[in-house]
Amino acid sequence: MSRVLVTGAAGFIGYHLSRLLLSQGHEVIGFDGLTPYYDPELKHTRLALLRESKAFSFVPGMLEDDALLRKMLADARADIVVHLAAQAGVRYSLEAPFSYVQSNIVGTANLLEGEVTAVGGETLSFRVQGLGSLTLPRPDQPPALGAAALAFRPHQVSIRVRDEQVDASRLWLNGRVESAEFLGEFSRYRVRVGEVAMVTDQPHYAGLAMFAPGAEVRLGIEPTQVRFLEC
Ligand SMILES: NC(=O)c1ccc[n+]([C@@H]2O[C@H](COP(=O)([O-])OP(=O)(O)OC[C@H]3O[C@@H](n4cnc5c(N)ncnc54)[C@H](O)[C@@H]3O)[C@@H](O)[C@H]2O)c1
């Protein structure tokens, strides 16, 4: 059983994920700022339901509060971090663009930074949802502020995932298409890479071939943009 830190645990997806994890016997540490983007009462109700489980604990706070976030990460001692706290929605970004910059860019950089600086020695480790731990050589230069994001850019470091080498901006893995679904502006593929199944959405650019089930593909993935379904 794992200790899972779920940011955005009072939100729509974070709440349902937390419930699922608790029902599977995992410990869940929820983190959420209970922002007023929609009625916070709903978030309080979700938290009350999660608190019915003794395996759930909650830390209120905003991602932008770097000091709080670091303390929370250190205290949580989580095996896995699932980052779902975010300013969601598309239309609202036209009204309040800086809310997105703060929550989604500054806040996420704070979270990654906290994760990375918590690890010492010659390597950095981080977890990608469900994939487990990736171990990266520490960059030559000491990380500066916000360097966690940089550290994950493969032009700064070399990453190995199950002995697969990485190119300039992506992890390149050999996969086999299990299913392909045409969804208008993009196609959704379920691709198997060894023991891992993942879903990836591919926009339709002119001239790009659709991959049929059974096709062997070279899959270039950005670590933060993949949902791993099973390991
Ligand atoms: N719901 C969907 O259909 C959907 C679809 C695609 C992607 N997503 C993405 O999944 C993520 C979660 O979506 P959701 O539907 O659960 O959204 P949500 O708004 O219900 O939940 C997000 C939670 O994060 C918290 N939060 C927001 N900013 C915060 C901050 N700066 N610090 C701390 N907490 C903060 C909010 O209080 C909220 O409880 C978002 O990134 C969203 O864009 C959602």
Give a nutshell description of this structure.
The protein has 231 residues and is an alpha/beta fold.
Describe this entry's structure for a reader:
- The chain has 231 residues and is α/β, with parallel strands linked by helices.
- The protein folds into two domains: 3-117, Rossmann fold, CATH 3.40.50.720; 171-230, Beta Barrel (OB fold (Dihydrolipoamide Acetyltransferase, E2P)), CATH 2.40.50.
- The chain is built from six helices and eleven strands.
- The strands form three sheets. Strands 10-7-8-9-11 form a five-stranded antiparallel sheet, with no helix packed on it. A four-stranded parallel sheet has the order 3-2-1-4, sandwiched between helices.
- Strand 8 (186-193) and strand 9 form a beta hairpin.
- The chain is globular.
- Mean pLDDT is 73; it is low at 116-120, 128-132, 137-168 and 226-231.
- Nicotinamide-adenine-dinucleotide (NAD) is lined by residues 8, 10-14, 32-35, 37, 43, 62-64, 84-88, 103, 107.
Assembly form of the protein: single chain
Radius of gyration: 19 Å
Helix and strand content put the structural class at: alpha/beta
Helical residue percent band: 25-40%
CATH fold call of the largest domain:
Rossmann fold
Question: Largest sheet at a glance?
Answer: 5 strands, antiparallel
> How many beta-strand runs?
11
Strand order of the largest sheet: 10-7-8-9-11
Unreliable runs: 116-120, 128-132, 137-168, 226-231
CATH class of the largest domain: Alpha Beta
Question: Bound compounds, please?
Answer: nicotinamide-adenine-dinucleotide
